[in-house]
Amino acid sequence: MSMLDAPTGRRVAPGFGVLFKTELLLALRHRADIANPLLFFVTVLALLPLGVGPEPALLAKMASGMIWVMALLATLLSQESLFRGDFENGSLEQMALSPQPLYFAVLAKSMVHWMVTGLPLALLSPLLGLMLNLPAAGYLCLFFSLLLGSASLSLVGAVGAALTVALSRPGLLLALIVMPLYVPVLIFGTGAVQAAIDGYGYSAQLAVLAAYLAAAAALAPLAAAGAIRISTET
Amino acid sequence: MEVFLAWQWFHRLGSPRWFYQKTGAWLPWLALASAVLLATGAVWGLGFAPEDAKQGNSYRIIYIHVPAAFLALAGYYIMAVGGAIGLIWKMKLSFAVMRAAAPIGAVLTFIALFTGALWGKPTWGTYWVWDARITSMLILLFLYIGVIALGRAFAREQVADKACALLALVGTVNIPIIYKSVDWWFTLHQPATIRLTKASSIDPSMFYPLLTMIAGFYCFYAWTLIAHTRVLLLQREWRTQWVREALVEEK
């Protein structure tokens, strides 16, 4: 295997580029799949004041946490379909068989997933902050923490999506296995926004989020690639 | 040849049949050891250890709470190591150990949470406080439940084993990160009472019964884990000759 792989092994970068472009094109052609998590995000957050009452002080206190929790749920909901299509039409098996490392295939898919969910969520967050009366000092930090944190969510979620792709209805199970792994991101994301609102520096929390992202980018695709190999055995 | 001999025990250990035959003899001894240790520790801790100056008698729940929490965490690592060995050496036995460890660990985590809540009522005046270690244990419970639920979702045991092993390993990488992040977020809790590096802040008269209980819990854990693994092995290997022979013998 190693002899045959040697020439193709050097072509990882173009292979990654092709897959990345294909994935991005596919994602952009399925506009509804991009819009649904965002609409979910906005709708649920609009329900929040109806549940807890419209009192501005109360909403201001809850805003950063609620926006983060909803971003987490929105990412999770979109995660289920990450490998689904490719699994059902057999491309996932082909990816696993191809000499291109599966690691980069997962990385490309996770990056595209982040670009169509995490990135728009972060861009949308100031609007929701406004609706929930988020204190002015928190906006910039909320944006950056969501930008960094949601990338980690996409990567870690890919492991769960790969583990459950062979199951017929993985929705709730996926949430069950991935949610506990999202805890550090949630804690440091909301921690950063809270620090910003209270007038403290928040670069330390953002640095931790970035460090988590670096670790997730290195390790999560590895685990997800292993999970894909397990799932495609069936 | 020497290398082969050195590894022979390892491969033999991987054989479900060998494991089943050997461990049958260990079970009564483990059961006896755990019964003696748990009874001694419980009587000593609940009846004879001195009363705490601040918390009165309510601190005595430590004799259940701490050993359960110890093993809940250790159990996750045992499960993950079992899964890793299974993935690397494709060993049927270690997958069975991993699958057996999951529900036991989940129950121990629940016991730790439950006793912690009971302890919290007289100490903090409330059953539930969102503090660092309680929250970490709750997340650990979710991690266990995730592994159990994932294992049940697959129709084929072999795929379920590998998927659970992978999830357990991912969880292992995340546990220290989760623990540290929850610790950072931490609000109120008494500092850890047993430290291995520094002098312990608990009096020896209270500490020795606690050690006895911890040893008892370890024996009890080994006993339940082996017993549960044996049942799983019988279920998985029921078509083989050795299972029939073993069952006939036991009749």
In short:
The complex is a heterodimer of chains A (about 230) and B (about 250). Chain A is mainly alpha-helical and about 230 residues long.
What would you say this structure looks like, in words?
The complex is a heterodimer of chains A (234) and B (251). Chain A is mainly α and 234 residues long. In chain A, 83% of the residues lie in helices and 0% in strands. Chain A has one domain (33-231). Residues 1-6 of chain A have low confidence and may be disordered. The relative contact order of chain B is 0.16. In chain B, helix 3 packs antiparallel against helix 4 (92-124) and helix 4 (92-124) packs antiparallel against helix 5 (132-153). Chain B has one domain. Chain B is mostly helical and 251 residues long. Classes of the chains: A mainly alpha (234), B mainly alpha (251). At the A-B interface, helix 9, helix 10 and helix 11 of A face helix 5 and helix 6 of B.
The strand count of chain A comes to 0
Provide the succession of SSEs of chain A.
Answer: HHHHHHHHHHH
Q: β content of chain A, as a range?
A: under 5%
Distance between the termini of chain B: 40 Å
Question: Of all protein chain pairs, which has the greatest interface, and how many residues does each chain bring to it?
Answer: A-B, 27 and 29 residues
Number of domains of chain A: 1
Radius of gyration of chain A: 19 Å
Which key phrases capture this entry?
heterodimer, A: 234 residues, mainly alpha, 0% strand, elongated, B: 251 residues
Layout of strands and helices, then pairs:
The complex is a heterodimer of chains A (234) and B (251).
Chain A lengths: L1 H8 L2 H18 L1 H22 L3 H24 L4 H5 L2 H7 L4 H15 L1 H14 L7 H26 L6 H27 L5 H29 L3
Chain B lengths: L1 H12 L2 H33 L13 H28 L2 H33 L7 H22 L3 H29 L18 H33 L4 H10 L1
Helix pairs in contact in B: 2-7, 3-4, 3-6, 3-7, 4-5, 4-6, 4-7, 5-6
